[in-house]
TrEMBL record:
Membrane topology: Multi-pass membrane protein
Origin: domain of life: Bacteria
Name this polypeptide is given: Flippase-like domain-containing protein
The keyword Cell cycle belongs to this UniProt entry's keyword annotation: no
Pfam families: LPG_synthase_TM
TM regions (residue ranges): 25-41, 57-76, 97-119, 142-160, 172-196, 259-282, 289-311, 323-344
Keywords on record: Cell membrane, Membrane, Transmembrane, Transmembrane helix
Location within or outside the cell: Cell membrane
Keyword Membrane: yes
Major subcellular site: membrane
Length: 358
């Protein structure tokens, strides 16, 4: 009896699992470790790691608590934004697979591109799932829009690592930072208008804009995004102020925790006052601009290479900086690769065997 051809759903499932197969970890892990190894090889001097013996375990404990709080915040946020259609168990799985996808896929795609599929496998219809992901993207962008003026006030010109970069590159970084901020602000404004005021006019605008000769190749994608905005508007307009307040507060909580990790890790080995901690927090905003344009999965290699430039002055020796690069990537990258390898097979067994929602 001939084997029936695969259905579109089966093809989509297979494509998703193919993108997250464990073999895809080899390149980013090897690239990241090579960069860290090179940093150690170039910088190591006997005695430079002496601060490890005087580590302040309170700050290390704070880093662990911040990591845990961040993940719990993500779990609460996705469950709340999804209007409690997910159980806490499902929300945990969604966040772990989402983070794993962010580590495995290029930074430009990240876990957000995979998130609607993940939610659909949990029993949430695609249209609603797209609306929920759009809410997370909107709130994430608004956090960035609000925080950038605050960190500019905190750090001023020190927001950019003049001490480690040539003047020309600092100017380029400043321009990239300004352009990214403008783009995120415009995009967030467009999403707000599309969701709450007139989604169909935004869809028409996108189609007309991407009908121009230089942009025509992305016209179909633009139309799809416009359709997603229309569906999201219909799904979300009825939610009251309490929904948006909780979603906004949880977003601010998780992103503040995310940006605070580096400061906690550095403070564990280098004495630090609150002003320096806030300064590191502010500089982390510009550091993330580098990661946004990274083409490697999870920013592997680029995140490690850029770290000393942005934070080396706060740490002291180059050897300790190399160690903190490695420690930072362990708790924010390699940890989620390991967790993903634990959660992914169990999640696949549950959602594919039982059809999603329990």
């Amino acid at each position: 009896m001939p084997t029936p051809p695969p259905t579109p759903v089966a093809d989509q499932d297979a494509h998703f699992l193919q993108r997250l197969r464990p073999s895809r970890l080899i390149l980013p892990v090897a690239l990241g470790l090579l960069v860290v190894g090179y940093l150690f090889w170039r910088s190591y001097k006997p005695g430079d790691l002496a601060p490890l013996a005087q580590a302040d375990w309170r700050w290390l404990a704070a880093a662990v608590l911040v990591l845990a709080a961040r993940d719990l915040g993500y779990i609460y946020r996705i469950r709340h934004i999804a209007e409690t259609e997910l159980t806490y168990r499902q929300a945990l799985d969604v966040i772990m697979i989402w983070e794993f996808a962010s580590c495995v896929l290029p930074s430009g795609q990240g876990g957000t591109g995979a998130a609607p599929f993940i939610l659909e496998k949990e029993g949430i219809p695609l249209g609603k799932g797209l609306a929920y992901i759009m809410v997370t993207a909107l709130l994430d962008n608004l956090y960035y829009v609000v925080m950038v003026p605050l960190v500019v006030l905190i750090a001023g010109a020190g927001l950019y690592p003049h001490e480690a970069l040539q003047t020309g590159f600092v100017a380029t970084l400043r321009v990239a930072f300004g352009v990214s901020y403008l783009f995120v602000t415009l995009y967030a404004g467009l999403m707000l208008y599309a969701i709450f005021i007139n989604p169909r006019s935004v869809r028409r605008l996108l189609v007309r804009l991407f009908s121009l000769p230089l942009l025509r190749r992305w016209r179909r994608t633009a139309y799809r995004h416009g359709q997603e905005m229309v569906r999201a508007s219909g799904q979300l307009r009825g939610n009251g102020p309490a929904y948006w307040w909780r979603a906004s507060v949880s977003t601010a909580f998780v992103w503040t925790a995310r940006y605070a990790i580096i400061g906690c890790l550095i403070a564990a080995f280098v004495p630090m006052d609150s002003g320096t901690f806030l300064f590191i927090f502010a500089r982390n905003i510009t550091y993330k601009v580098i990661l946004l344009v990274a083409i490697t999965p999870g920013g592997a290699g680029i995140a490690e290479g850029a770290f000393p430039t942005f934070f080396g002055k706060f740490i002291g020796t180059a050897t300790m900086t190399s160690f903190l690069v490695f420690l930072y990537r362990i708790v924010t990258y390699y940890l989620y690769l390991v967790l993903g390898l634990v959660f992914l097979p169990r999640w696949v067994t549950r959602v594919f065997a039982r059809g999603g929602k329990e």
